[in-house]
Amino acid sequence: MSLSHEQLAGLSAETVVVASGRPPRDRDQPVNPPIVLSSTYFGTGPLGDGDRGYGRYSNPTWDPFEEALGQLEGAELPGLLFASGLAAVSAALSLVPAGGVLVMPTHSYSGTLVMAAELAQKGFIELRTVDIADTGAVKEALAPAGPDAKAAAMLWLESPTNPMLGIADIPELTEAAHAAGAMVVTDNTFSTPLVQQPLTLGSDVVLHSVTKYLAGHSDVVLGALVTSNADIRAALLHHRTIHGAIAGPFEAWLALRGLRTLALRVERSQETAAVLAGRLSNDPRIESVRFPGLPGDPGHQRATSQMKGFGSIICIQMKPAGALTGADAADKLVGAVKLWLPATSLGGVESLIERRRRHAAEPASVPENLIRLSVGVENVEDLWADLRQALDTLGG
Ligand SMILES: *Cc1c(COP(=O)(O)O)cnc(C)c1O
């Protein structure tokens, strides 16, 4: 037999990513699970809960990843894979009842914000966006004063936020949300369960864009949800089955393959990000650096208390350079790198760099001169040398 849920529960996360989801330890069994390509399954008579039934209901290739992610997030139940991070967002938002109030960070992931705003425009939900780092403002949005004020049905958390790296006080906000009668969903994409476990901090549901760190190689698009609440999980599973945003078996297999090295990748990229953030904050051509690991960062204390590291995303804002505006200087920097890859997305083995406002959907409150750096696993000095030569093209 492969390791049981109980055996895995006693192991550290670095071991779980490697040891979970293996086929039975019997002679001549493969050491990796196979990819099962079948749209249907043998069977007669009524379908029960344990039956696979049809390819949209379940696929054996999803199971090892879902089991591993549940373990890593400290959940009592396996996770649920979805076709993309946004498919998972859609399923999670379906838990807001008709007309219910959704409280969401102003700087949530842009696709999440667009989806919530469209639901609100249609009158399906009521949306309140708040600065998630401002605990008092979030509490006010959750349970406004006044006899007719409507309490929230769901608090959406993203911490650190994308791309502003704002840090929410997760334990305090989940407590306030529950007191107001709201469910809490936390997008944990930036941190991974190795750095932050929102369920243990009080969240009801954890969301991942598996596309990013979990799969880790910028070669699949997938999402996932994790919860310890059986009723919530059943509702999310029903949504996946009926709305049909399921993972392809090959993508699910690649995600598990990527997960095997998650601990190594996170360890290396966090270490490198800390070094680079320190050096960038001393560069005269840069106006400001956001990285929760910097002692002067506004989110540093909170991050220290609820995370096991600081992640590997850095945001910098560029100063004007000569005739160039800060935004132009940012574009020039992104155009001048030779090793860093100018591309959107994050969390892969390769380091990526992007001026976020090149996306029309990015909130206007994200500064035009802001560059997001996703630090990969390359050699730190090679990454630094490339950034430095690109910064030197700006003069100064
Ligand atoms: C990328 C991302 C998403 C959306 O995930 P997709 O896999 O692209 O659909 C959601 N949240 C965060 C924080 C992200 O970075």
TrEMBL record:
CDD domains tied to this protein: CGS_like
GO process annotations (BP): cysteine biosynthetic process via cystathionine; transsulfuration
Residue numbers of N6-(pyridoxal phosphate)lysine PTMs: K212
Top EC group: lyase
GO CC list: cytoplasm
EC number annotated for this UniProt entry: 4.4.1.2
Pfam family, one: Cys_Met_Meta_PP
Keyword Ligase annotated: no
Catalytic activity as recorded in UniProt: L-homocysteine + H2O = 2-oxobutanoate + hydrogen sulfide + NH4(+) + H(+); L-methionine + H2O = methanethiol + 2-oxobutanoate + NH4(+)
Keyword RNA-binding among record annotations: no
Cofactor needs: pyridoxal 5'-phosphate
Keywords per UniProt: Pyridoxal phosphate
Similarity-based family: Belongs to the trans-sulfuration enzymes family.
Annotated protein name in UniProt: homocysteine desulfhydrase
